[in-house]
Amino acid sequence: MTEAQKQLLEKQLWSIADTLRWKMDADEFRDYILGFIFYKYLSEKVTLKADKLLHEWWINKSYEDLLWSNNETLEILKALKIEAIDDLGYFLYPQELFSYIAKKWNSTSQNESDNFILEDLTKILKNIESSTMWTDSEDDFDNLFADMDLTSQKLGKTVALKNELIAKIMWYLNKIDFKLEDSQIDVLWDAYEYLIWQFASWAGKKAWEFYTPQEVSKILAKLVTSNKKKLRNVYDPTCWSGSLLLRVAKKVDEVGAFYGQELNNTTYNLARMNMILHDVNYRRFDIKNWDTLEHPEHMWKKFEAIVANPPFSAHWKANDLKLTDDRFWIYGKLAPATKADFAFIQHMIYHLDDNGTMAVVVPHWVLFRWASEWHIRRYLIENRNYLDAVIWLPANIFFGTSIPTCILVFKKCRANPDDVLFIDASNDFEKNKNQNRLREEDIEKIITTYKKREEIEKYSHKASLEEIKENDYNLNIPRYVDTFEEEEQIDLDVVAERLLKIEEESKEIDEKIKSFCEELGIKSPV
């Protein structure tokens, strides 16, 4: 996609977002906009599939030509439905397509009692979900549109106003060409990333600290795919909208399967939509909706790549029963009940395959807090030697929080088992109005340093295991990377000479002021 095309897309998306921005919170209108984008995508995807099959079956019709049913078209639609559900996992009839509904609204008179668009959409969204019943894709589509409340008063106080607003959104969206037939252009990725970023910037609430900025997600993805072209699978135990999983897929030629778990029901729906929107077949992803620490859904799986941005210092049930859990018992200690950061790390370590790489974002205090967290840190380094790198990020790069963060990289089979690489990237960023941003050169510097395990003055250091032990397993970056800048030496003789010169110049100026005042016949101020 060219820069001009990208700017046009952002302009079109802005028009859509702006229709709802002043009516409700960003968290709320996000669900409507992304829901409609998803509906449009499903419509276009099934149309492409149907048109392809009609061509292969030597039927000289397009899918939209089957709008008006007769005995012949009904038989064709039955056959198309079987093929679509098997391949795509769902089905839409021609009269349920996004484009048809958008055009139907524009050609129909609007009045107070006209409720057709709300009724039609409600039925269509239900039909999409019900088309998957008793099929392999049922779990992936179940209640997928639950957060799109088309009866909400926030869309308008009257039926006519709701219809008008929804029609406006659909009209704007209908003008955007997703170019699904062109595998080289990912319009949907750009659209989704742009909108998610806008929602996060507008919301500005603590909940959006779990949105991983694109720059950070790029780092995580590059770390876990280093020197790899294919991945058997990738996992995110706190997957939010699933964007981190998909970012990993962009860095390799192929990912066999995607796994994730998400506690929040709304973002769980977003994650499933996001997978399908990015052409991940329902057979290749398994996203679950439950508390990862309390109800892990993939206990039998090991993963080649793990990425995560868990909620910072979340509360969890750190009771004695957890000490019998396969994920935690080997450490002999649990993370504090009010600080689950290491509980997530322990969970991820359990799922990490022997040839895998894991990269997790954590608040920087995870590096040096004491008590049980110190015990877990020491065990991971001294007994297991899994910690591969510690990367300190700039402060204020996450929405909703300004706390400094870091990335921990773990491997079970390390190519460099004698040291841990520390990178202090906290000073390399671009300062924006509301939050700091990592530039491409900052990202590449981190990745290049990690891959080469370079030692760069005031930036990176390879700390031996003995050095870390001497620091009592405190991983605070300043203990390993010295960024202290010596102040320039001051020559007091030069300063004294300069002061004398200034005093002489001051006397000369005073004399001139006196002479000017005498000429003017006024009292001198000096």
Describe this structure in words.
The strands form three sheets. This protein has a nine-stranded mixed sheet with strand order 5-4-2-6-7-9-8-10-13. It has a two-stranded parallel sheet with strand order 1-3. The chain is built from 16 helices and 13 strands. The chain has helices spanning 3-21, 26-56, 71-87, 98-106, 116-130, 138-141, 159-174, 187-203, 214-224, 243-250, 265-277, 341-351, 372-383, 440-452, 465-470, 492-520, and strands at residues 230-231, 234-236, 254-255, 258-261, 285-288, 303-308, 352-363, 387-392, 405-411, 419-424, 430-431, 436-437, 460-464. The chain has three domains: 3-199, Ferritin, CATH 1.20.1260.30; 206-427 and 455-479, 3-Layer(aba) Sandwich (Rossmann fold); 491-526, no CATH class. The protein is globular, with a radius of gyration of 30 Å. The longest helix is centred in the first third of the chain and has 31 residues, at 26-56. β11 (430-431) and β12 (436-437) form a beta hairpin. 44% of the residues lie in helices and 12% in strands. Residues 108-115 have low confidence and may be disordered. α2 runs antiparallel to α8 (187-203), α4 packs across α7 (159-174) and α9 (214-224) packs parallel to α14. With 526 residues, the protein is an alpha/beta fold.
